[in-house]
Design a protein that fits this description.
With 832 residues, this protein is an alpha/beta fold. The chain contains 25 helices and 32 strands. The strands form six sheets. The protein has an eight-stranded parallel β-barrel, surrounded by six helices. Strands 4, 5, 6, 7, 8 and 9 form a six-stranded antiparallel beta sheet that branches. β26 and β27 (769-770) form a beta hairpin.
């Protein structure tokens, strides 16, 4: 149909597998995440190595009917790694046998255990690219086709050489005599901690660092490596518990050093522009999986680690003394010198004023003064949050637009840009400036999920995560690395449960058939093949379907998450009001079989609200005046609000998160009164109801009381639904009281059909045992224009074909009986 013709190739059931092409084909994948042309920001020289045979790989993928995507780094890390290169008798660098333009690596960090002790040891990476290293030419920034400008400081100085070694000799600059961490490329362009030091992380070769039991020392070789004794551990990556991360980051001899990029530094986009042209022309890629398309390494969950690069410091000074000058209190403004203000010095001085001690991150990372709630009242800190969000969104948008522009010029107008880290840590950086979310997700410890995390099925809140993720990008689909704990690797049933829950919610797994050291995804290789085979079979039928969003929205306030951040992260990781309340509401609505949609703040428009009857505001602390006015007009015209917990005590970004006087607005007063009194209040043609203690927050945190707490949620919905005129929330799905808690019903529609997805999450994760649903009976509301039509049903299921019977009942409803569900069944309904 017409709808399908407009659909980009990546917007229809993306089956991504990160394994060799032959395994992608044999396991029914349609997108291969391979290596040819990838650029994790080691420099163009490294990328060239991966493109030498890439065109052949791309052709093989095309012949197999598979698209090829590669890993790119967003504003995460830029690397420098240990390597061994050699010269011939003439003194020239020995080149690769296949590509005479490329200097051959004899050894590098990944296989340093095989280093033979001969020269030349050299640190290679992004620094060499910007420094135009003669050993790596032509694959440096002076490349005639893929070149870019040099790295500079904000004042225009070219960032060249070392901060401690005065030399122009590149063999010295990149040799083991000079610490690669002292490069001015890192110093100018990368993330810095609050004391002005580049925040480095380290990669260790496990074979080199293995301890010899007789000598109690690493077996080596250790030549050229950096002895790391006191590296800050930092925040765990997705898929790791804090304990696992600490173990992975223990001291050792590092052959890879890397730092996050300062997202305010424009040279990273200059480099990206060159790199993406190289990848498209030389490796013929179809898309990118972009790591750190987020605040992760350029702001972090503990901003003291990496929020303060040189370009950020200079940009914030200009922002504070220019556009934002009128937003700062008059008594604070004189302290901001437009020529020399350094936010790092300001933050450290304030930290010491509040009792903080120590002169380095190592000494004071855990000091409670970094988490003092007084930061939330500090106007300079709040302005810094606003600046970082804006420059973060601008940087990611430039990244996206650069890739899209070069793709269109080079014959790839539908080049795919996926991004990692959303929505669990996005903070408003990503606002539809992305094709598809492709993120790492685990149910345990998380930055915005707390120390307990989301919990596994059947309690899992993944559906709320999927729906919020979808709102961050342009695709109908979300793609997820579904990590599982080590003891569940290869277990088939947890894979089936997560995969089919995803399918019911327009989410597809990013599969890894081989366990990886950085986290392994759910299911067995056989289970992945079975799942993707089923999806391949039903795709022609499912292709145009879209979720039935229903009439309820749950508001997502990235500003509330951002405002809550202080230099040391969230003041209380165990109690994050907005995040927890959002996930609680989303999970509870899903368990009550109520269709709903996540509404992020950048989509809070009259057009969006016109499609809703009810909007839930879960602990929304910071919100713009314009959004308050939009909500007030909507309620005045008949909209209905559920206010959970505090509402709008702070202005949004446009007013620097200043405190708000609630008495100035009849709308705000009504919201707060409804929450305090727990009753329905009429306003214009609309209604407001609330609770001071948001039941969504309690539902998320107090998992042992969920059966009781869901009744509180239901009572708020009933109050708002029974206000006149009644029936604001259509009863799309009706289930009896004994309907299984672990079975979810999700509705989809295309132009002529209704799809009823049933997915069973009743699993004991410890034993990988699934309890089947048994007979199910429920009713659904049919589309209005189907009234009086006879309805046909077709059943699709990966494990047998359950018997389903349907029968029209009063009120335009359809009664449905299904005899049993193991993992997933879809009933496709079509009027005759």
């Amino acid at each position: 149909g017409t709808e399908t013709a407009k659909c980009p190739w990546w917007d229809s059931f993306p089956r991504i597998i990160q394994d060799p092409l032959k395994d992608v084909v044999s396991h029914h994948g349609n997108i291969w995440m391979g290596g040819g042309g990838q650029d994790p920001f080691y420099g163009l020289y490294f990328q060239r190595q991966t493109t030498i045979h890439a065109a052949r790989d791309a052709q093989a993928a095309r012949d197999a009917g598979v698209k090829k995507i590669v890993w790119y780094e967003g504003f995460g890390t830029a690397h420098s790694y240990i390597a061994q290169v050699k010269r011939n008798e003439k003194g020239d660098w020995i080149k690769n046998g296949t590509d005479s333009t490329w200097t051959q690596l004899v050894r590098r960090h990944a296989d340093w255990e095989k280093y033979d002790g001969e020269p030349v040891v050299r640190w290679i990476g992004i620094v060499n690219h910007f420094e135009d290293d003669a050993a790596l030419k032509p694959w440096t920034r002076s490349h005639r086709e893929y070149g870019c400008p040099p790295m500079t400081y904000p004042d225009g100085r070219i960032a060249t050489g070392s901060t401690v070694t005065q030399t122009t000799d590149q063999d010295v600059l990149f040799g083991p005599e000079t610490d690669p961490r002292t490069s001015r490329v890192f110093d100018a362009g990368c993330s810095k901690d609050v004391f002005g030091n580049v925040f480095f992380e380290y990669g260790y070769n496990a074979a080199v660092n293995r301890i010899d039991p007789t000598t109690r020392k690493p077996v080596g070789p250790l030549a050229g490596l950096i002895a790391v004794k006191d590296a800050p551990i930092g925040t765990p990556d997705p898929g790791f518990t804090p304990e696992e991360w600490k173990k992975a980051k223990t001291a050792g001899y590092a052959g890879d050093v890397y730092s996050g990029k300062d997202i305010a530094c424009p040279m990273w986009n200059d480099y990206l522009d060159a790199s993406i042209r190289h990848a498209i022309k030389e490796a013929d890629i179809d898309g990118l999986w972009v790591d750190n398309f987020s605040p992760w390494d350029n702001f972090n969950s503990r901003p003291i680690e990496r929020a303060f690069g040189e370009w950020t410091v200079a940009g914030f000074r200009a922002f504070l003394t220019g556009e934002w000058k009128t937003k700062i209190p008059a008594d604070v403004l004189p302290t901001v010198d437009p020529e020399s203000f350094d936010v790092r010095k300001y933050v450290v001085a304030k930290y010491r004023e509040w009792g903080g001690t120590g002169d380095s991150l190592k000494d004071c990372m855990r000091n409670p003064a970094w988490r003092d709630r007084r930061w939330q009242d500090d106007p300079i800190w709040r302005a810094f949050l606003v600046y970082k969000r804006r420059v973060g969104t601008e940087g990611l948008t430039r990244f996206y637009e650069t890739v899209k522009k070069r793709g269109a010029e080079l014959g790839k107008p539908d080049i795919l840009v996926t991004g990692n880290d959303m929505p669990m840590f996005s903070l408003g950086w990503v606002r539809d400036n992305l094709d598809m979310v492709s993120t790492e997700l685990s149910w345990g410890w998380g930055n915005t999920a707390g120390p307990r995390g989301l919990m596994p099925p059947p309690q899992s809140g993944y559906v709320a995560v999927y729906r919020l993720a979808r709102e961050h990008a342009k695709s109908r689909f979300v793609n997820v690395w579904m990590y599982v704990p080590t003891e569940l690797i290869g277990k088939p049933n947890i894979g089936h449960v997560l995969h089919y829950q995803g399918l019911a919610n327009h989410t597809m797994p990013k599969a890894q058939l081989t366990p990886r050291h950085y986290g392994s995804t759910a299911g067995s290789p056989e289970g992945v093949a079975e799942f993707f085979s089923f999806v391949e079979k039903v795709e022609p039928i499912f292709r145009d379907r879209k979720p039935v969003d229903g009439k309820i929205g749950v508001f997502y306030s990235s500003s509330s998450q951002l405002y809550a951040m202080v230099p040391g992260g969230y003041p209380d990781h165990t109690h994050q009001e907005h995040s927890f309340a959002f996930f609680g509401w989303g999970t509870a609505l899903t368990k009550k079989q109520i269709p709903w949609r996540a509404i992020p703040e950048w989509k809070l428009t009259p057009e969006t609200l016109d499609k809703l009857s009810v909007l839930i505001l879960p602990y929304v602390i910071a919100i713009d005046d314009a959004d308050i006015e939009t909500l007030a007009r909507w309620v005045d015209n008949g909209g209905r609000l559920i206010v959970g917990g505090k509402f709008a005590p702070r202005h949004g970004e446009e007013r620097n998160f200043d405190g708000r006087n609630e008495s100035t607005s009849p709308f705000l007063s009504a919201c707060l009164q409804a929450a305090r009194q727990g009753r329905v209040i009429a306003l214009g043609k609309g209604w407001i109801v609330g609770r001071n203690n948001d039941p969504g927050l309690a539902y998320y945190k107090e998992d042992a009381r969920r059966a009781e707490l869901i009744e509180r949620i239901e009572s708020l919905l009933q109050k708002i639904d029974t206000a006149e005129p009644k029936g604001a929330i259509p009863d799309y799905i009706s289930v009896p009281k004994d309907f299984p808690f672990g079975v979810d019903i999700t509705l989809h529609r295309d132009a002529r059909r209704v799809f009823v997805d049933l997915n069973n999450t009743q699993i004991d994760v410890k034993t990988d045992t699934v309890t089947e649903s048994g007979p199910l009976r429920f009713e659904i509301l049919l589309p209005e224009n189907w009234d009086g039509n006879t309805v046909d049903v077709t059943v699709f299921s990966p494990h047998g074909t359950p018997k389903a019977t349907i029968k029209p009942v009063n009120g335009g409803r359809l009664a449905i009986d299904v005899d049993n569900i193991r993992f997933y069944t879809c009933l496709v309904l079509e009027p005759k």
